[in-house]
Design goal:
Elements lengths: L1 H12 L9 H4 L21 H12 L10 H13 L5 H8 L6 H10 L3 H13 L18 H12 L4 H14 L4 H6 L18 H20 L18 H9 L4 E7 L3 H25 L4 H17 L6 E7 L8 E3 L7 E4 L22 H9 L7 H14 L20 H13 L4 H9 L2 H4 L7 H7 L12 E2 L2 H11 L18 H4 L33 H5 L18 H9 L1 H18 L3 H12 L6 H11 L4 H8 L3 H4 E2 L1
Antiparallel strand pairs: 1-2, 3-4, 5-6
Length: 650
């Protein structure tokens, strides 16, 4: 099907020749057709995933750890699927549910919870480097980009098939030019950083950078290959020619930004009436700037910026793209990626290593990005399904079957369980590209339900120190958003309102002063909005919230396939001394007093049940009550928010 889909297109419109690839290049595992592995027959392999994992463990003389206790499993599932801690009531209900399908029922409830889309939406937004500002010097706000974020969350909650999800984002405008949801989805093509050149985006250098961003994300986010490495020369390690890079770019040659109005003629007229006086002043000021230099010019430019701030807020619009064949950019191979050093002109064609020798290019076609998307999600494409199931696996185990989710090439490590990867990819395709089905399959496995403590710890650390073979569950530190959201949740302050324009929270003045315009950081006036989930905080490229930054949140500049998990002193300083941490500790203490009363033992017990998802151990209970004899309750609350039991998932 994969080859046939492309041959049909070339016969219909078709054109020029292509280079061949050596047998060695074609033999790389990721470019091979998926195998159809048989599920190993091993003792204890009740589930196909476990059969593959156990077969490998037994080969190495290892075995799985015992199953985690129910309270631990509940907390693990809640954070993995929702990004939030369970309440004590929710933990207790699961622990005391004696029905044989209690665990499966909990999984289904969580997958149906609207917070699921918020949690897994964050992972997708990382991947596509979603941000609501341009970056670079001006870092202009993208006022309506939040609609794309909400589209992602809605799509994941609805369990939209992954093949449709990709098609809508790459080509929503081409397949539904009047469908608002699809137009918003097409904003995917505008998510990269954008360098402004005095407001002129049609200059060749800017256009080249825009096309580069559109092309690179196809390789990293959708195909899991380092396509961008072939921009300046043939890929040094993988079977990706420089021509391949520009052939993929050719699918975007006619793609241009398009803001689609979401306002009436009356609203537009009212906006123009308010803006007209300011615009007249700006025109007069620009005229007076002619011939001015030095300090005098600087003063006038400052006045111009002040006037720009007086313009009314832009009217709402859909952040989308559209094809304009009349303005299509001719695509050439660029020596060293330099837009001024053009080589051969190329047409559209998928990656050559996945096509027959001599496959042709296409110079033009209708809906080119839709054609590219259909090739990417074709069930026979050897990359797409493997890449996506590997991302889902990484989200549950903290490590992918391929440890480099954006690089399935020669410089990335080989899969630890290649047969399991292909089996999962086959199941993904056969199940209609349903992401929730893959979640359910993975978290139902014994491999996922293991304890993080193993009786074989000494042998396991000696033979497999990175736990690649899954002889126990690897505990993980919560991600930045999870820590912030969990603090809000346990303090009883979390505002669970979903969707809408992003929230700007207060930060230090010194950070705001570093922006091109301090007015870009206009704090949301409603303080209740400041307690929304982190996915709804504005993603500004030139100002990262210190709390999020210190806990390894990505910078929105490039695709982030996996979160780092560092440990360093500033994290402890932020948790102990940070404004947000202390505000949450104060609110947490008020909640403990309100719900547990003045009884110190009950306060300690509730603190652990809220923050750690379990009762305190005897020594913890004893230390906590002793601590409260001399210290205020807010200090205990702050200490609990600094515990590993709060910050880590076992």
């Amino acid at each position: 099907m994969l080859t046939r889909l492309w041959i049909v297109a070339t016969v219909a419109i078709g054109v020029v020749g292509a280079a061949d690839y050596t047998p060695t290049e074609r033999r790389h595992w990721a470019f091979q057709k998926r195998s159809r592995p048989e599920v190993p027959k091993v003792p204890g392999g009740r589930n196909p995933i476990d059969a593959f994992v156990l077969a490998r463990l037994q080969k190495e003389g290892l075995r799985m750890a015992p199953r985690a206790d129910r309270a631990t499993l509940a907390r693990r599932l809640y954070f993995d699927l929702l990004g939030l801690p369970p309440t004590p009531t929710e933990v207790s209900a699961f622990v005391h549910d004696k029905s044989p399908d209690a665990y499966a029922k909990l999984i289904d409830r969580l997958l149906d919870n609207p917070h699921y889309g918020e949690r897994w939406g964050e992972r997708w937004l990382d991947l596509v480097r979603f941000a609501e500002s341009d970056g670079f010097e001006y870092d202009t706000h993208r006022k309506d980009a939040w609609r794309y974020r909400d589209y992602v969350i809605r799509s994941l909650n609805a369990d939209k098939p992954y093949d449709r999800f990709v098609l809508e984002q790459l080509a929503g405008d081409e397949i539904g030019a009047k469908d608002q949801e699809l137009l918003v989805a097409s904003g995917f093509n505008r998510l990269g950083p954008l360098r402004k050149n005095a407001g002129n985006q049609e200059v060749a250098s800017s256009r080249n950078e825009v096309l580069t961003e559109m092309t690179n994300v196809v390789g990293s986010a959708l195909l899991g290959v380092t396509l961008g490495c072939a921009r300046c020369h043939d890929h040094k390690f993988d079977a990706i020619r420089q021509k391949d890079y520009y052939r993929i770019q050719a699918y975007f040659s006619a793609t241009h930004d398009k803001d689609i109005p979401m306002f009436s003629l009356e609203e537009e007229a009212a906006w123009k009436a308010r803006a007209a006086p300011v615009e007249e002043q700006m025109k007069a000021l620009r005229r007076s700037m002619r011939g001015k230099k030095g300090e005098e010019l600087d003063k006038l430019e400052k006045k111009l910026e002040d006037l720009q701030d007086q313009l009314p807020e832009p009217l709402p619009a859909l952040f989308a793209v559209a094809d304009d064949p009349a303005k299509a950019t001719p695509i050439h191979v660029l020596a060293r990626g330099d837009y001024q050093n053009k080589g051969d002109r190329v047409g559209m064609r998928p990656l050559g290593v996945l096509l027959p020798d001599g496959a042709s290019e296409v110079s033009q076609m209708e809906a080119p990005r839709a054609a590219l998307a259909r090739w990417i999600v074709d069930p026979e494409n050897p990359l797409t399904a493997r890449v996506m199931v590997n991302r889902i696996w990484y989200g549950h185990f903290g490590r992918g079957i391929v440890a480099t989710p954006n690089d399935f090439g020669a410089m990335g490590p080989r899969p630890t369980h290649p047969e399991l990867l292909d089996w999962l990819a086959n199941e993904f395709v056969a199940g209609g590209f349903r992401i929730k089905r893959m979640h359910r399959m993975i978290v139902l496995s014994d491999a996922y339900q293991q304890s993080s403590y193993s009786p074989q710890a000494a042998l396991g650390r000696e033979q497999d120190p990175e736990n690649k073979l899954l002889w126990h569950f690897s505990r993980r530190r919560l991600e930045a958003e999870e820590i912030r959201d969990a603090m809000l949740a346990v303090a009883g302050k979390l505002n669970t309102k979903a969707g809408g324009p992003s929230i700007i929270v207060p930060v230090e003045k010194e950070l705001v002063d570093l922006l091109y315009k301090p007015s870009q950081w206009a704090v949301t006036p409603d303080r209740e909005e400041h307690n929304r989930r982190s996915v709804y905080l504005i993603a500004k490229r030139n100002l990262r919230l210190p709390f999020m930054d210190v806990f390894d949140a990505p910078d929105h500049q490039i695709s982030c396939p996996r979160r780092e998990s560092s440990t360093h002193a500033p994290q402890a300083l932020e948790l102990l001394n940070g404004t947000f941490s202390n505000q949450m500790a104060e609110a947490f203490a008020e909640r403990l007093l309100r719900e547990a009363g003045a009884d110190r033992a009950k306060q300690v017990d509730l603190a652990y049940r809220l923050a750690a998802g379990r009762a305190p151990k005897p020594q913890e209970a004893q230390l906590g009550t002793r601590f409260l004899r001399t210290q205020p309750l807010r200090e205990l609350a702050l200490a609990v928010l600094n515990l590993n039991a709060f910050l880590y998932v076992e």
